[in-house]
Amino acid sequence: MKKSKALGILVLILAIMAGMSWYAGTIISTVGVGENRNIKLGLDLAGGVSITYRAVDENPSAEDMKDTVYKLQKRVETYSTESTVYQEGSDRINIEIPGVSDANSILEELGKPGSLEFQDEEGNTLVSGTDIQSAKGATYNNEMGNREYIVELTLTSEGAEKFAKATADNVGKTMPIVYDGQTISAPSVNSAITGGRAQIEGMESFEAAEELASTIRIGSLSLELEELHSKVVGAQLGEEAISTSLKAAAIGLVLVMLFMIVAYLLPGFTASLALILYSALTVFALWLFDITLTLPGIAGIILSIGMAVDANVIIFARIREEIGAGKSVSAAMKIGYEKALSAIVDGNITTLIAAIVLGFRGSGTVKGFAYTLGIGIVLSMFTALVVTRWLMRCFYALGLQNAKLYGSTTERKTINFLGKRNICFVVSIVVIVAGFVGMGVGTAGGGNILNFSLDFVGGTSTTVTFNEDYSIADIDSKIVPVVEGITKDGNVQTQKIEGTNQVVIKTRSLELADREALNQALIDQFGVSEDGITAENISSTVSSEMKSDAIWAVVIATICMLIYIWFRFKDIRFAGSAVIALVHDVLVVLAFYAIARISVGNTFIACMLTIVGYSINATIVIFDRIRENLAGVRKQDPEALMEVANRSITQTLTRSINTSLTTFIMVFMIFILGVTSIREFALPLMAGIVCGGYSSVCITGALWYLFRTKFAKK
């Protein structure tokens, strides 16, 4: 590459980097450059709208309430994956949607939940709204190439049978869709529709199709609801939570960049520049895809910055190996990228598979996590394989060609990791068993196997009208300690109702004596009126269906990852070892939760899913090197196989340590500077990072060797 061309490309990349960094700064700025340019913030950071519905039917069944909560949760996810829906009392449902301040507009868009029926032309009900599983607007091009707008319906298994019979009996007729006594559409039946899927054609626009789909979705609820009241609630956390998290991100980013420069010299400097671009692109992507950002989301982004250098670490290690073997810098860069490509692609695609499955199958926080995970994977691959590579080529062409600027690594003495495999297996088993013992101790004391928060087990919501308007900082410093003194539990959530002196305090479920004690403490210390205190039992915001969605999403993602690894490595023993190592890391982190009794809330799901992605990535790097070193080795010789495993782990040891260290630095900064809720997310993550580094070095290769020698045939 000519110097003039290299200089031009370098200036272009740096200009793009500067422009994107400035733009990202305007997006996350508290002032910004216009409201439409700001990222949506969650209830914890910016508040939103809270709407309370009540069932029209008296004494609704618990099953109908549960079903309605879940369907409403799926409905409001169209506004934000971080929206929450939970039951209050016996017949009320609360919906909290972040990032908005106009309750009326939400109520108009959400629609009034009512009864929906598919009728024949004489008004007889053929199919009810509860027979509809999902409805969404869609477009397609017809045979003439013209765009058509439709509503796609998916029916339940019982509904599919009803719909098949109804359409068979009414071919050539219309089937009016009646919502709360009014006909909202009258599609014609062209043929009998079987299979549980149907389309309503002839919509005038996509907006009209989506509006009809929205009405069908809200009309498929098990209960008819009426609006009781709505209010705008303030942020659950103060500005301090955001500022400290951003400060942690800035300090962590600088520390990681310094580490990369010290450890990898010129390549580390290029990776640092690419890391700045990666951070800016991540912020831009959040705005572009309209993803709601919560405090755990900020922590996830900070974590992804630490993980984003992983691909660079793999590449730089390969380049150093080639220089140490006597290759020129130019040849070493070319070969290094080629040899690192398979590990980077396989590791990231495996994690991307998990993100895609979680996005489709998950709900609520799981879906939001999947979006940010997918964005992080794609951007980290782009910055490592494209941006860093071009920067290195430009610097090389501009005269920075001395091998000392790139470093070199000679073949180090192979460490006998597998010789200690039995000790490692015993240590892992002891830790996991200790976790189950910790769960047992928790239940023996009358509690739960884990320290479940309000998100999982529900609790008591107390609304208090104070005599003065407390700020969020005052609520945290003055009111929360009083509440914790009564409940003897640090799991307290607060929300301020905008335009009033009211504060909603959510705690563990309080018995009558505890409620009376809390009321008296509020009266004595803040002078509130007894009439200004009301309390209701509330359900968990993570419903059993959402838990089921998350579990099934993880199971399906694990199976898909297993199949992909099996396909790429052409040996199911690689795939089986990877999955067992993944389960190992998850169980160790679960043991940490059980023994340390850390609060298990929505961040727990994000934490465990992060560990899944982190674990599988580290495992793939080891296996990629084993696959490479197997060439020319006697496949059934146990000693030769052990030597391959030990050599592969030794060769990738620097990567394992450095990636774990950069990620740990970022999470440690969150832990040091973050607020209480974010520390509860960071602490188990640090345990997971340490465990991931340990398992990639001490467990994965040993498992592969065990399977390879005990099960000789594939």
What does this structure look like?
This protein folds into 5 domains: 3-25 and 237-405, Multidrug efflux transporter AcrB transmembrane domain (Multidrug efflux transporter AcrB transmembrane fold, Up-down Bundle); 53-112, Alpha-Beta Plaits (2-Layer Sandwich); 116-220, Gyrase A, domain 2 (2-Layer Sandwich); 418-435 and 543-710, Multidrug efflux transporter AcrB transmembrane fold, CATH 1.20.1640; 459-538, Alpha-Beta Plaits, CATH 3.30.70.100. The chain is 60% helix and 13% strand. The chain has helices at 3-28, 43-46, 62-76, 103-110, 157-169, 206-218, 239-288, 295-308, 310-324, 329-361, 365-397, 421-444, 454-457, 472-487, 512-526, 544-569, 572-596, 602-629, 638-651, 653-673, 676-698, 700-710; strands at 48-55, 84-88, 92-98, 116-119, 125-128, 132-141, 147-155, 177-179, 182-185, 197-203, 225-233, 459-465, 493-496, 502-507, 533-538. A 4-stranded antiparallel sheet has the order 2-3-1-11. A 4-stranded antiparallel sheet has the order 5-4-8-9. A 4-stranded antiparallel sheet has the order 13-14-12-15, covered by helices on one side. Strand 2 and strand 3 (92-98) form a beta hairpin. Helix 8 (295-308) runs antiparallel to helix 20 (653-673). It is globular, with a radius of gyration of 28 Å. Mean pLDDT is 82; it is low at 30-37.
Helices, strands, pairings?
Layout: H1 3-28, H2 43-46, E1 48-55, H3 62-76, E2 84-88, E3 92-98, H4 103-110, E4 116-119, E5 125-128, E6 132-141, E7 147-155, H5 157-169, E8 177-179, E9 182-185, E10 197-203, H6 206-218, E11 225-233, H7 239-288, H8 295-308, H9 310-324, H10 329-361, H11 365-397, H12 421-444, H13 454-457, E12 459-465, H14 472-487, E13 493-496, E14 502-507, H15 512-526, E15 533-538, H16 544-569, H17 572-596, H18 602-629, H19 638-651, H20 653-673, H21 676-698, H22 700-710
Antiparallel strand pairs: 1-3, 1-11, 2-3, 4-5, 4-8, 6-7, 7-10, 8-9, 12-14, 12-15, 13-14
